[in-house]
Structure prediction request, 327 residues.
Amino acid sequence: MLARVFGFNRRSFDSLSEQEILALAISSEEDDGRIYQSYADGLRENYPQSAKIFDGMAEEEDRHRRSLIDLYRSRFGEHIPLIRREHVRGYYERKPDWLVRPLGLDKVRTQAEAMEEQAHRFYVEAAKRATDAATRKLLGDLAAAERSHESLARRLTATHAPTEVQDEEKARERRQFILTYVQPGLAGLMDGSVSTLAPIFAAAFATHDTWQTFLVGLSASVGAGISMGFTEAAHDDGKLSGRGSPIKRGLASGIMTAIGGLGHALPYLISSFWTATALAVAVVFVELWAIAFIQNRYMETPFLRATFQVVLGGALVFGAGVLIGNA
Prediction:
């Protein structure tokens, strides 16, 4: 394990022969082509025009691979040793496409730019090591090609994803983010923050026992989180509504519901009743304003109306809890 972490079982780049450098370049181009194709496939359903950009990038990497293989055959024969980037100490690493999902447009474009910059540096260093004129020329050409991929991406973008298409795809991406994460998360935060006010403050004023109040708040928050999460995940699989993965929506709703309740339950870990209550009330105030802000920011609800709805509803539930606790 330590050898893997610190690279003790890897070769240094300087120790590679020209044959091994070419083999490494071939495997790297193959990997990059697969990554670009994965990006294209992951974007194709929601962003078909941007997917074409990465189709073009994948084709370019395949042309590089074929050129490298042709050169390798002319110098070293048919057998290409298996040397991959993870076998070389200090060599750049690629992030698998499943680690950057969901495939947001800005995320994959940023990742692609980093990939091309890393590939450029590799070919520059590899060309310095080459003594054969044809090999040096090809590696230098590939370094220039990788450097020019930024302009290639711009040309492909201009062809397949002009400004109006990019704006449309970004709007679609934002809408999907809201439907999958913001909407269920906001519903959960509202439910957790407001619905737990009554039981928590009723328990607080009925017992004046901060620990018992905390236990009531903890159980109410966790229970509400589990209930909201399962309800959100079970009632809509997202296929017809387009709201995205039910698991993601369920987690967003459940976690935010629990957070909403725990926010004003945690202050009751303080032993002083009035200190804990004052802090809990302050937390409730912050939670309600946060809900109003999210409604205004993502759901386009006018801020004053969102504030009135949330604060009025929270105040009514809070008052009910206090009255019941003092009954």
